[in-house]
Amino acid sequence: MNEREVVVRCRNVHKRFGALEVLKGVDLDLHKGEVIVIFGRSGSGKSTLLRCVNFLEDPTEGTIEAAGMTLTGGHRTTRKRSQIRQLRLKVGMVFQQFNLFPHMTVLDNLMVAPLLVKGTDKAELRQRSLDLLDSVGLADKADEHPIRLSGGQQQRVAIARALAMRPEVMLFDEPTSALDPELTGEVLSVMKRLATEFHMPMMVVTHEMGFAREVSDRMAFFHEGKILEQGPPDQIFNHTEHPETRAFLDAVL
User: Which of 5, 42, 148, 192 has the most crowded Cβ, counting Cβ within 10 A?
Assistant: First the structure.
């Protein structure tokens, strides 16, 4: 693993909200073409780490390297704010909620950010956006409004929208937790294609252990703000080292 290029590097990342310390010195690397599944109990710091990687939350301490930039936690200077904007162009994120613009069509939802932020040629972007919708199985929904789509379809649109920015890394924060079970599979299928066909580096916070077993290269178990254990799926599922990890897996499997 060491010879592979690191695309996200977290070093000694702490995050405090007042007296509450949510992250307690997290070290984690994501390599090119790798999928890391981050799992653990609610409140263990999983989603907070993803938000720190994309600087939606500023780490209290520590360093994040991503998309060719190195940013440290603490005060946001004018230069740092500019770096964060550049980082977010290259690090896409998909949330639990779809956050689509309800007054726009599906196609316009994909096109709005690249047009405004990157100034992409409109005709080229339109074709690329249609291709992305086709890749997530929604080519026939381009002119629909989000309210007419199922939850699973809306989440697939959200994934396509993130991909429209041509990110180098994708972060997924429990992307199926707001979906009914029968809609979860269609979203996980799109994520699997990203990993297996397009080799997109991905950090995925999820409780979907079937996806973790089948798709992830590595799993990281969060416990009380730290990574208690990490390793390939076979090690985590069959040879786990820590009772806390085993207890969590027994509860969700």
Answer: 192
